[in-house]
Every structure is written in C-alpha cells, then in structure tokens.
Amino acid sequence: MDQGIRQFYELGYEDERLRVGGNGRLEFLRTQDVVRRFVGERSRVLDVGGATGVHAEWLARDGHDVVLVDAMPSHVEVAGALPGVSAVVGDARDLPVDGPFDVVLLFGPLYHLPERADRLRAWREALRVVRPGGVVLGAVIGRFAALLDGLRRDFVLDPRYRDVVARGIRTGRHLPPTDTPWFTTAYLHHPAEAAEEAREAGLDVVGTFALEGVAWLRSDADLDDAFADPRSWTT
C-alpha cells in the first residue's frame, strides 16, 4: 500500500466517517440499499478492503457469513472482533483466501490503485473467488469528486488544491500533498470507466449505480436533519 494512504487510514477517520452522520451516513445508507438488492439469503460474502467492518457488521447481522480482507492490520483487528465476521490482512490484487463466495465486495481497493493494471488484477481476483453466477460489487470515486468536495468545504481557496483538482480531472490521479487534511492518494474514475475495467477483467456487467448524487453537496447538518425524518430518504 502507498505509504501516504497507509498514514491517512492510520488516523482512524474511516471508522467514524460512515457511522457518525452527514455525507458519510448518506454513502452508508445508499451502499446498504444497493448491496441488499444483490445479496441473497444466507450468503457467503467476501468484503475486500472492508476497513474496520462498517459494512461487514450489518451484513453479519443480516445473517450472512462474512470474511473481510484489508491491507491495514489495525482495521483487521477491529473488524475481526465483530460478531459473525472473520478478518485477515491481505492485498486485493493477491487475495489470501479462496472461494467460492456468493458475493465479493470491492468497496475500498479500486480507487486506491492508481494503475489500471492493478485495478484489473483486483477485479480478476474477485472473479477468481466468486462462485459461478455470483455477484461482484465494486465502488469507485467519480472524476469530479475532488472538485465538488473542494467547493463544499472551501478547499479550493488553496491554490495547491486547485492544482490537485486540475491534475485529477485531466488524468484521474488525485495526488494531494501529505501535509494537508485532504483526501489521500486516489484514482478518480469517469462514470463508465469502472464497468469497462470490469468487462476487461472478464466479468459480465449488469449495471452502474450512483450512490450519493447531488445530495452529497448538502451540508452535514442538513443531511442529519433529513436522516431524522425517514420520509426524506426512504422514498
């Protein structure tokens, strides 16, 4: 793992980000909604890059058998303590587990592998361990996410951030300086690009789903108010 990425996740933000509220909660709820459409009853699920088990936890509560793989030992320690979850340190490009799994989730690795060849390896490893007819679900970050995040949180007032955004839009490579609070090294996909990579890796693509959309640009306080009223996010 890139050392900058490792240092970013050692700060512990990932465990809180999806649990606390705001746009992290929005991402969590939408991801949960999409996953439940594809996961059958009592499935064997492999969560690759599953961090501290935010999704593995509810999947286990839903009755699934969950195995989590993550490159960060500190993440694996936390996830492995969750009821119904087993966890192991490993690389998405060379999984330390064998299948067959009914469902494989790639919700962390794809946007932290800047090289296309490495992303294809991750897709192919998922294909290797999923059962015939099983499901592989991958998540990526959109090409304009850094620009939108910068506008939302005023990062664009820093000329260095504007340089990061310009390079990211041009090349897909989000490469922030290490002395900033900005999101760490990532690859930002065009909307159709992830499906193209999955097909090249040998998977049959059934769809691409937007997770957050324009709602992501609302303030965390506004989103928390919306979460308090189920009618605003369940329709």
Walk me through what this model shows.
The protein has ten helices and eight strands. It has helices spanning 3-10, 13-20, 22-38, 54-61, 73-80, 116-129, 145-153, 159-171, 193-200, 220-227; strands spanning 44-48, 65-70, 85-89, 101-106, 130-138, 141-142, 173-174, 186-189. The chain is globular, with a radius of gyration of 17 Å. It has one domain (3-141, 196-230): Rossmann fold (3-Layer(aba) Sandwich), CATH 3.40.50. It has 235 residues and is an alpha/beta fold. Helix 2 crosses helix 3 (22-38) and helix 3 (22-38) crosses helix 10. It has a five-stranded parallel beta sheet, sandwiched between helices.
Summarize this entry quickly.
The chain is of the alpha/beta class and 235 residues long. The protein has helices spanning 3-10, 13-20, 22-38, 54-61, 73-80, 116-129, 145-153, 159-171, 193-200, 220-227; strands spanning 44-48, 65-70, 85-89, 101-106, 130-138, 141-142, 173-174, 186-189.
